[in-house]
Amino acid sequence: MFNRGTKEKPNWYVGYRENGKWKYRPSDQPTKALARRSVQEIEARIARGQVGIEEPASAPLCGALLDQFLAGLVNRNANDDCSRGRRHLLPKFGEMRIAEVTLATVMEWIDEQRAVGELSDSSIRHNMNLLSRSFSWAIARGKASINPVRLIPMGSRPTQTVKSDTPWLEDEAIARKLIAELEEPINFMFYLANRSGLRSGEAAGLRMSDLGFVDEGLIRVRFSYDGPLKEDKKGEGKVKWVPAPEDCEQFLGPWLAQRRAQGAGPEDRVFPCARRKGLCYRKEYLEQCWEEAAPALVGSKTATIKKKTGELVEVQRPTMTWYEATRHSFVSRHLANGASLDEVSAAVGHSSPVVTKRFYDHFIRRSVSPRLRTGLGLGKQAAGRVVPMPKR
What we know:
Elements: E1 2-3, E2 12-18, E3 21-26, H1 32-47, H2 62-71, H3 78-93, H4 103-116, H5 121-140, H6 172-181, H7 186-196, H8 200-204, E4 218-221, E5 223-224, E6 227-228, E7 240-243, H9 248-261, H10 283-293, H11 295-298, E8 300-306, E9 312-318, H12 322-325, H13 327-336, H14 341-348, H15 353-366, H16 370-373
Antiparallel strand pairs: 1-2, 2-3, 4-7, 5-6, 8-9
């Protein structure tokens, strides 16, 4: 028995173990003494072989609630969250009642994702946060009384580790081969993301007028997919500018001419997706094209995935992700070549150079300025001279 409220306004919860699993329920009692009586009643029911607390027959399934929650998302990554929810949340929790999703159930789900080995800890954490958001949504609408994700101890939560030695695409010849291998216009988006450091959504969300500054060496970025930029937290229409590749006009010229011939106006998309009736390409499709084209060029690894039928199959996947070959390679390439931290941070649109330094400190610490390097040697003169220090 524990209090989830305050001292002035207690909210007593009871926890009990049933069939080897912990379950947590609100006691709906105003005082500790009455809540303790609820615990005794639950213990008596379990001793008689009955369930601790009977669920009402009308309690909705999690699947219906998750469908409502995902359909109502309007955040910048709503499409990505919907896809994650359908792939990772619904198969596990769709047939459960809301009260059946306990701390033990959530921990079991996290362990299952790790055991399959398909997802990184970052992706598992993203899935966990999405589940937590769905429970907060359900609590606000009176469909649930407790968020089991918030009960997970901090030491047991998946963490996003900072990788300092993540591979990046150094070989320009391989980059050219990838552009030739990827289908149009995915290859153009890869080109802009690799050469200008655009995020996938920023490349997919470009409008025709955004490429009207290429002769000045700049590309305007205003959208991420069909929504605002990641940095635009309040939807204020923020704009950022990124460096345009030197051969951008030559490389993209035929495609832009084709779009104009199709009647594309200044605010029409540079890369419309025909399958989505002219909307932006989705992240999932970009990564699918990458996984089909990249293994032969950047190396491959064997991964085990679980199909909808429950069958485990082995597939060949590239050793380098789309992100590592594009935006990550842009930052790594320029920092390795001696570009300043402030300049690179501004080019990729980080909120502060501190953010860039957090992930790329290994490049920054390896760089030595020419001014510092002039004092590293003893110089050409063989004779030494001692510089006297002033007396205090």
